[in-house]
Amino acid sequence: MKQKKDVQQGTLALMVLKTLDVLGPLHGYGIARRIEQISGDLLAVNQGTLYPVLLRLEQEDAIASEWGPSANNRRARFYRLTHTGHKMLQAEKRDWEQTAGIIARFFEVRAEDLA
Amino acid sequence: MRALKRLLARLLNFATRRNLDERLREEMDQHLECQTQDNLHAGMNPAEARRQAILKLGAVEAIREQYHAEEGLPSLENVLQDVQYAVRILRKSPGFSIAAVLTLALGVGANLIVFLVLYGVLFKPLPFPKPQQLTRIERSYSDGTTVPAYSGTKALFFQRVNRAFSSMAAYDYIPSHANLVQGDNVVPISVLRVTSGFFRTFEMQPTIGRDFTADDMAPNAAGVIVLSDGVWRDRFNSDPNILGKGITLGNRSYTIIGLASPRFALDAKSDAWIPLSITESPEDQSNNYNVAGRMKPGLSKAAATADLRRVLLELKSTYPKLWDQSEGVQAIDLHDSFTGDLRPALRILMGAVGLVLLIVIANILSLLLTRAVARRREVSVRIALGASGWRVLRQLLAENALLSSAGAVAGVFVAALGAPALMHLSPIDLPQFASLHVGGATIGLAGVLNLICCVIFSIVPMLETRHTRLYECLQLNSTRIAAGRHRAQRALVVSEVAVSLVLLMGAILLTTTFWRLVHTPPGFSTQNILTFKNSFTDQQAATSAALGQHLNELKANINGVPGVTSAGAAITLPTQLSPDLPFDIIGRASKPADVSGNAKYIPITAGFLETLEIPLVEGRAFRDADTSGSAPVLIVNQQFARTFFREENPIGRHVLIGKFMGAGFEDPVREVVGVVGDVRQDGLDQSAPGIMYLPAAQVPDLETRAINGLVGESWVVRTRSSGMVVLPAIRRIFMEEVQAPLLSVQPMSQVIGTSVAQQRFNMILLSGFGLISLVLGAAGLYGVMSYTVAQQTREIGVRMALGAERGDIARRVLRDAGILVGVGLAIGAVVALAGARILNSLLFGVAPRDPLTLATACGLLLVTGLFAALWPARRAARVVPMEALRNE
């Protein structure tokens, strides 16, 4: 169970990076909504778990944040991708594609292929 | 790299205590508001929009926890939190905490103090370089006895012929007294005579100046002296240009050639060192010197001993008269030779103090068990709320660690306060003992003890969390009937009682020993007797006739002081060191050894025996008229008469003392004129030896000079009231007549006291441990009984409702306590009787398995135990049935 959470957290981080890469600076709610729109149920509930991930990414220098005015004229924290974050996204993306490729091939294997 | 960055950020957060809580709260508020807005747009009513938003955000607390975990250093923070919580818990029950910390402080403190003594005596190396090379050379005999004393000739021969030692030196058996004359001021100091190479042997070269050389030892060499650091500071104001200056000891002049290192000290304190003028002679039989040697590097004691055996064989051809077939030789560790006779007592103290620690631990374990049961509901609630077993355990461990650490710290303080007092009390006089204090090693040991306690204490909560069954503990009255649960506690109390019995028995045995010792009739009177020593100059003691004259005049003057009833002198006092000399009974067929036997040799003045009230059994006492000119006479004691004359009457028989002691020591044939009562000359715990008393004025001149140089004269003065009143007058007499100060002034009772100091030390320490164990054992029993009664309140209520009498209830509790104590006593008695023999060497006048002692110790524990159970029993008897039953 713990492992699954780690995977989710990892993927969530990747989604955050990709979202910021595509859409530019966003506040927490904005990021959550985009991810919800694209991924469906992964972030339909427990959207709050996003914030620890954001903090971690920020501590890793992958993203930076600052206060800015939100749509409803309130203060909101806006996150944007940093140069490090960009490089991290590229690397993660490669890793992910590689892993996904391997797993995909694995699932396609049939018994006679191994004979 | 990424991990490192994160760690840095976390550390920074942790260090600066940056609180990101505020930011998270604001962000989540914002998030909620946005979501609510969107929900409203989607057509929900405001309340529902808000509710859905909150649901979607998820568990705020969990998120905050997660956020927090990302933010700082979670494990360290948790530990801090655990400790904070532990402090709060311990402060909430101050009674328990204080009791536990005090108990621990006592146990740890006692252990640290004993460790300090033990370390100082057994483990701390002698304060000399490469101490493992230092040995003392001893004569050994086939029956296992060893004697460390050697004649000057043998010492010089060993020094000359050995191949195993890089350096060897002989020195006086005990330092002698000398009077340091500085103008009108005369100060007594102790002087040790040593051979050349003495300081080199210990590798403690004088800080200024030089060691003695062979030339300094020549009989007609100019007098030279090495001063101790203490005398140099106290008497010469740390004069930096001291070398080459002259000083006067008695009537002799010495040139100062060196200053000893301040760290240099042997087992007896010396203020100065002068060369020993000895030369080899083929008939030298006196055994007056210690021999110490430094083995060559890498050599074992066995190899050194083998080499010494070879030297003895060479002695046989060089000095056939000095060679004795039965005499062997061995090199033993110098440190061991200093501490040998202390070891048995110290080992027992170490064992006893270990037992005290066991009781302390058992006591605290019992307390912890009680608390653990009482806290089961708390623990269950925490587990039910989602705390993991590990988290709960960690919390309990933090409490224990805190508790035992506080105990250890307090223990260090106890040791720091108690150690100086104990050192002061202890009769141990060793060079490495002076610099003992509570330091790194002691604190290290406290840490180790702390760790051990901590681990042992943790067993309780570990068992506790493992066995906790939620449903059981959350039931409201589950803790009321918990019969099986305190089996562990009862076992602890039983073992506490058992260990207490062992300690108490030891304490009572040693107390009895001491009591018997001080109440042993020493064979002489100790009341109203003042004692002191003095030494004469070589000139004053040049001949026995001259010395006898001085002694008689001094005695007459002392007798003239108002308040003095009688006075006398001898070379030594009862219970102090005295020489043994061989003698021959004239007219009796000599045994192969050429002598009839050995006996104590004590030259005295007339009046000595009378002053000490040593009874005259037969014949006559000495008179002032027994001088060098009159017929040689001798008085023996009853033990001597019994051993060597059996049924014969010794009066009128003739005895020759020290036949083979060499020229100048030759004694005239003496007639036995009197028999006196026995005196415990070797100490109260030793049986009375055979003693030969002879008039001081009739001793061979050479021997008088040797005795005067070595030990001086000891005086006994019987006074009507306190001896201190007459002291100034006596001091004046000695200054005027022989220009000598008085040394070691003390009442006779104190001389006796000094002779039993070791036994007193043993008694005090073990009694202290026994008392601690008694109190702790009682406290443990009280705790368990109170707890049991509290647990059984409901049961007692039911019993009373069904008609039980109050007396029955109280008796039940007392009986319960009695069973615990009884089982403990039975186990303890078996252990005590089995282990009693190890005390044997320390006891006097009482058997190690003395039944009376065992009964006393058992009775004491039983009474204390029942007393401790009395309060719980009364509380049980006062239970009001209705309240007990209602009180859920």
Salient structural properties:
heterodimer; A: 115 residues; alpha+beta; 3-stranded antiparallel β-sheet; 3 strands; 64% helix; B: 888 residues; 6-stranded mixed beta barrel; 28 helices
What does this structure look like?
- The complex is a heterodimer of chains A (115) and B (888).
- By secondary structure, chain A is α+β, with helices and mostly antiparallel strands.
- Chain A has helices at residues 2-23, 28-39, 50-59, 83-108, 111-114; strands at residues 26-27, 63-69, 75-81.
- Chain A has a three-stranded antiparallel β-sheet with strand order 1-3-2.
- In chain A, helix 1 crosses helix 3 and helix 1 (2-23) packs across helix 4 (83-108).
- The termini of chain A are far apart.
- Chain B is an alpha+beta fold.
- Chain B is built from 28 helices and 23 strands.
- In chain B, the strands form four sheets. Chain B has a six-stranded mixed barrel. A six-stranded mixed barrel of chain B has the order 15-16-21-18-20-19. In chain B, strands 1, 2, 3, 11 and 12 form a five-stranded antiparallel β-sheet that branches.
- Chain B starts with a helix and ends with a helix.
- The interface between A and B is medium-sized, with 25 and 30 residues.
